[in-house]
Structure prediction request, 437 residues.
Amino acid sequence: MTHDEIEEMLGVYALDALDPQERQEIDDHLASCPRCRAELAAHREVAALLGNPVGEAPATAPAEVWDRIASSLQDEPPFLPPLVRRGSRRNLALLVPLGAVAAGLILVVALLAAKVGDLSQQVSSLRHQAGVTSVLLDPTHRTVALTSAVHPRWRTTVVISANGEGYLINPSLPALKSSQTFQLWALSRGRVVSLGVLGSHPGGAPVRVQPTMTVLMINAEPLGGTPVPTTPVLVQGTLPVGL
Amino acid sequence: MQPELAHASDANLVLAIARYREDALAEAYRRHAGAVFGLARRLLHERAAAEEVVQEVFVRLWNAPERFDPERGTLRSYLLAQAHGRAVDQLRSEVARRRREERGARETALAGYDVEHEVGDIIVADLVREVLGGLPDTERRPIELAYFRGHTYREVAAILGEPEGTVKSRIRSGLKRMHAQLSVSGLGLKGEQL
Prediction:
């Protein structure tokens, strides 16, 4: 389809009235055409208003639906290596007096309890390791260095696959106060938008890059993050055109 | 729930959701699930199917909060757009199933469907209803059939007996006209004037 043909479809697109096979072609065009994106955004505003029961008593969603949602949420996927090798526990019991085994287990439990904080961090970094690897294996992946004009040692890298899935790796950033977190920002259509808080150890954090984004930035914000940046940028990098 | 969430902006709620705060999702649900449910039920007419849409929309917000872009519009608009897409998907698979069963009978029934009556049942903002109602029939009817009945533009063209190209253009020009009128009515639309 030509630009003009696609433009004619934008109203239909905003109303979800396209055939699925046409949708893909228009999505591809939208990724590279700011004019069509702007028009679609305006159509979607109208569509959203059509669906919005403003000024009337809205329907109430049933409480049991929330219960179903809450029970289906998964914080972290189970992705830990097994702590004990199969079979080794039985051998241990044969060789060591029972009391010593019990004492040993208590010690292990105590150590594990102390390690819970580390563990959850490890789980989340393991969770993203597979993603980082898959991006690096993608031959079309791009690498963007985020650097500082002030401190040459402050830097980090974002690896991004062709579909915009990215990860932050090898961060070398200043230490934060305990009341602070790193936060990731992007320049998109001339505005700074938040891509989320990164915590104090941003290595492995996922980054979802949209075609409209041109610059990535990281700064330090109060814990919990803020909707707009309130402190200077620590590191930043320009995204290559065509992501 | 921590008290500050009740006063948090929608954008901050989404930030908290991105940090796996279930209480933030609960607050977003409290604010917007009613509207989402209302829209899904209007399209699907079945409570169970509408509940399924609500569940999908909020689980998706939990799993991919970064897909909400506060620059593009409100959280409510985003969730309603998601709900509309899901509801239409369900509707189409149901329509496809019935069409296989009923063959041509369905098309005949649709051709005689009273669109005016259906839209009269639908709760929309007075202003939006007024602006929609003020459109020329040639633009209003395809928009209603597509948005509120979940038809593709090809189906709309068949129902109205118009060429597909005409239906596309009229939907587009109708939405532009509505955008212009809603903008001057002070609804605070962000998109550029078309």
Q: What stands out?
A: Chain B has eleven helices and no strands.
